[in-house]
Amino acid sequence: MAQMLLLSRKAACNAHGQDSSYFLGWQEYEKNPYDPSTNPTGIIQMGLAENQLSFDLIESWLERHPDAAGLRRDGALVFRELALFQDYHGLPHFKKALANFMGQLRGNKVELQWRNLVLTAGSTSANETLIFCLAEPGEAFLLPTPYYPGFDRDLKWRTGAEIVPIHCSSSNGFRITNRAVEKAYQQARKQGLSVKGILVTNPSNPLGTSLTHAELRTLLDFALAKDIHLISDEIYSGTAFAGSPAFVSVLEAMRAHPLNVDLADRVHVVYSLSKDLGLPGFRVGALYSANPEVVAAATKMSSFGLVSSQTQFLLAALLSDNGFTARYVVENKKRIAERHGRLVEGLRRAGVECLDSNAGLFCWVDMRHLLLADTFEGEMELWRKVVYEVGLNISPGSSCHCDDPGWFRVCFANMSAETLDVAMQRLQDFVASSSRCGGRGARGLPRGPISFARWMVGLSSSRDRQWSERGY
Amino acid sequence: MTRHGEPPSEQPSATAEEQALIPGSGGGGAAMRLIVPLQGIVQGHGGGGLVLGSLLPCVLFYAFQMFLKRSRSPPLNPPADGPENRGVVRSSSRRRLPARDAAVSARAALIAKSGDSAYAVGEKRCLEDPYHPFDNPDGVMQLGLAENRLSLDLIDDWLSKNWKDTMLHQRQGGALNIKGLATYQPFDGSLEFKTQAIAGLMGQVMQGSVSFDPSCIVLTSGATPAIEILSFCLADTGNAFLVPSPYHPGYDRNIRWRAGIELIPVPCRSTDNFNISVASLERAYTQAKNRSVKVCGILFSNPSNPVGNLLRTETLLDIIDFATEKNIHVIADETFAGSIHGNEEFVSMAEVLNTDGVDRTRVHIVYSLSKVFSIPGFRVGIVYSFNECVLAAASRLSRFSSISAPIQHLLISMLTDVKFIADYLKMNRERLRIMYALLVSSLMELGVQCVKSTGGFYCWMDMSKFMKSYSEKGEFELWKVMLDSAKIHITSGTTCHCIEPGWFRLCFTTLTRNDVPLLMERLKGVIHRQ
Questions:
Q1: Residues of A in contact with B188 (CB under 8 A)
Q2: How far is A432 from chain B, CA to nearest CA, in Å?
Q3: What ipTM does this complex have?
Q4: What is the pTM of this model?
Q5: Which residue from A275, A153, A148, A272 is spatially nearest to A206, judged by alpha carbons?
Q6: Do A466 and B396 make contact, defined as CB atoms within 8 angstroms?
Q7: Across the interface, which of A2, A158, A307 has its CB nearest the CB of B258?
Q8: B171, containing H or E segment
Q9: From the candidates A10, A16, A85, A86, which should be mutated to test the interface with B, based on the most B CB atoms within 10 A?
Q10: Any idea what the Cα angle at residue A461 is, between residues A455 and A466, rounded to 5°?
Q11: For A188-241, how does the pLDDT look when each residue is reduced to its tens digit (9 = 90+)?
């Protein structure tokens, strides 16, 4: 009889997590996706942080610049050059344009050095590469909660690193306090983990808020005091609304810090064009660091996830058009802010509030008052109702490691305004009918083919879930 | 520009220091140990004098060592007893930084330094002083990189005629629409691309001998991540793969850097025409077992890089039998499958796996579009496996090395142009054959013999008789003379872990016919001097 052929521990075949309750939302959406004409009762996808609001701006630029899209320079095909180009240092022209664009997003308050950029196939790859560069297997990074669920996979899986949460709570708007950071650090030590750094998302996913000067100062001081690194994932930097509070990059905060020279080696930024330009399919990410060893190692590691030369060529042309990028940034932010406002208004009409946010492609929505029980089980029960009865796939806070049950992330930029209105109407109807049934909402057994027992079993398994292969 | 794809030929086998930093390599312990001298065992009989006479020197010795320990600067992150101290090799060669600097990981320190070896100067020279027939005829000829420039014009032509069908020219109602390309796609490639383009293309490359199942395909951004992903799936840090040598120097990077898997070279000899023998696999396996190293798989390339020979069906079956007996995996790197120029027929693992009784779940194949179509810049690698678990894991891991949507869109119309592909493969093969024959005959006139190669971009040359001494040192010196005096950059056999000194790998596909006489002239200069 053949022996069982073993795989590595990392690859050990699990059930793909497909029977986990969190996947149900995605699966239900895939089975029954909303379409205004062909499937108006289908599930609306509000769990995907994608920016589809400004494609027309990019499309019109491409129409006016057919050379860039057609691999031509001054009319001549540059295919050969691009076909053979696999230098992990990247196209200098593209990196310069990207560095310039990133500076623009920071109000030109900081100037980024293009040689400090390392290109990667998406920010997923950039985050993993940074952790490979900074941490040994078993070492830990502190992450403020709630955080992007993908980090559990991206930061830990192949690197062997650990995540220790910095607990933030709704009592102060989920702000990061020095006390919370210190507590997390001590907790890590108690678990016998050596802390190598802190990783924050700024603006935050899932909160949609950007870090204040005070929070940034706290983080920078802490990094210095404990001699650790600070990674700021700023992939949502271009989604910050105009006006105040303005987005402050960690690079800006670092520049203002009295000990900025000592910080240079330990502060690293991750970026991607997936959210701002809405081009996740292009797989363009980058990490930025003034630490020469990190840049040297990450550059070589980028062999494992290079950005295709054709994409670099195209985007170099796009991002070098300063007039276009300036207009794009302003218009894109305006549209995001407007759509955000529309969602907030729609939620309010349903009697639902959300965290005051100034960025992101989502809102952090407070549905605590709709819970039947102030527990994570109660949150899951509400979530199931919203998916199955209301027909909205939203993301429960527990998937983001939120400490307080009842919060949900609701995305707004991956659909038309009309679809958003439909979603809000549904929610309003649901809340109205729930209050008519008395108390905190109707107690209904979940519908659908999945049995209640199976759902409960799913709840009792680990909270760490493998999410769908789509970007989250 | 430093190339990443074909690894710089300066990648030697890891130095002792580097070995120490590779997790699980078993090299150098770092922590200072208190050496307990073997004093006379206090037997209990022998009296107080003997006890004191034994104890006092011990106490003094310990005190001295404690003093020494305290006077060293403390480590940056005082290691607690924890998971990070189990199974992680810490080496004294890890940088000790002043307290204020932020340390990087040992892995990063090693990788940042890689490319500092003696062979690295070759890459540097190629970048500083690249040969060009008109602009820089005295420059350094880069023959260490696998780039096929022989048939780029064919693809150029196709693109010129068909560019309207290619990237970003999706039209809906006349207006350009990028939504289909811009939004999130499956990281392991779109089903449409796999089904319509890749499966069909690979079938054509194999000349119809195999039919490829799109559901067994995972796409990545190149063969480099494809191999790394498979490594992560099939072995844990500290385990090993057997690799017949000489082998592609890039494996040292792809498999050891981050996956931390040891590569155990299984030497092949010129007397066997560098063919793989199961007996040597068996020997290497046993030796590893005696060292308590767990072998998880065999990795080999076919056509072989650097030698260029093809494995016969019997050999492929023998390898599978060996792997089945040891219950390990097989990774077949067939990235040169579309670059056959000799008369022998190429037999893919994919074809052999159709044989009755063969365990398909333990064999995993890697392909790439980089070689066959000379498009390394477009980043398309392929993992092909019948193992459901490997496919599931690889497809999840592909998120870290994902293929871009516009590239799939650009390539789909080209790869589904069956007539173009058939013509291209035929013409490319012919051009490779002509160029290879020209190189080999020219080298023969200089007294340089090459192993008969049937596929790939290389001549595997025996230049041992031109070395001053039959040793690694002699080989390095010859390599240096070729670089410095003849301004030719080729890859030394040592970089490919060849056990016999004097072999060199030369890539013939970056040359035009007109470059060949100049190359021979320069080589002649070196040879006569030696």
A1: 469
A2: 35
A3: 0.85
A4: 0.84
A5: A148
A6: yes
A7: A158
A8: strand B171-172
A9: A86
A10: 95
A11: 999 999 999 999 999 999 999 999 999 999 999 999 999 999 999 999 999 999
